[in-house]
Amino acid sequence: MEAAGTPTPPIPNRRPRSRRRAARWTGLATLAAALLIETVVTPNADLAAAAGPGAAQSPPPATGNPSGQPWLSGVNGDPQMTPAAVNQFCFLRGDPCDLAQVYVSRKTWASVVEPSYAETNFAGWPGKLVITVPPFPEDGTSNLQTCATGAYNSHWQEFGRTLNATGRQRSIIRLAWEGNGRWYPWSGSDPAAYVGCFRQVVNAIRSTVSAPPRFDWSINAHISQNPPSHIPTDLYPGDPWVDVVSIDAFDHYPASPTLAQFNDQAQAMGGITWLYNFARAHGKLFGIPEWGVASGSGDEGGGDNPNYIQFMHDWMVARAGQGLYYETYYNACDTPSVGSNLDRPLGARCAYANPASAVRYSQLWRAHS
């Protein structure tokens, strides 16, 4: 249950970037194709410098995934939601990306369900997409209760057709994410409405999509401001409507400076191990769609904490081949944001850098190559 006076965790900057005019081509060494981007982002020297021998350890066997990880591995696009930004991050870490995390604009129904940059920017990109979508636009009138009646189903049938038209039917659809918080219009203060809405959306998409996507029910780690019970799984939509259970896990609220603290938080209600066990009990795959260090969270964050990178990596390795389906690092350095950046240099558009974490991340992810 939420402790009295507990601050609301700040919202990591998940607002989609506006589409920017492509200005020139650039190549990334060892990447097969030239990629269209506006500007060349100068890589963080620390992450680039770490492209040497990996950390001394015994990683799990490599798989057929391009990343070499035994789970699907990727990142969001930062500063632009483009293949170039995604590929650059993974090139610098030493492994290609298997998937990219993308976010639709939440302004209107058209921006949510019709083809947009979230799908079209990645046309021809070979990896899988994690498409993060709200159950309705943030237009001041749409709400969970109306959604739960099926009133928005025609819009979501259109989204199914969008997946068909863009060839992204087999994407991971992360719907109504972080409903256990209190910062989105779909926050689960009314659990019955949240569950009913989620089910309506899934049913509507399934009625028009030509191949099955995987539907992802995702919570925010640690404290649950919603539902009123403060038990996040009271918002679980039910096994028939969920393929993946996932968690957004940053090093904040609270931070994990030690392994003992990480394990305590992981095993507590709302923690990553607690939710993983719930997913396994329900026969579901498990995902980590947003995770990272938290230099933008002030005293409530762990700052440039390479140990958190290590703890998360080791947690994943211990569950490789046991239902862990995917993870995407959430890379952000603008203000406000969680400040998890590993590859961009400080500058006018980048307020946070984490050089020690960048080196550790590259060492660990290269070790699976």
From TrEMBL:
GO molecular function, one term: hydrolase activity, hydrolyzing O-glycosyl compounds
Family indicated by similarity: Belongs to the glycosyl hydrolase 26 family.
InterPro entries the UniProt entry points to: GH, GH26_dom
Gene3D superfamilies, sorted: Glycosidases
Active site: E178, E290
Keywords attached to this entry: Glycosidase, Hydrolase
This protein's name: GH26 domain-containing protein
Span of domain GH26: 54-361
Region spans: Disordered: 1-21, 50-78
Pfam families: Glyco_hydro_26
Domain of life, per lineage: Bacteria
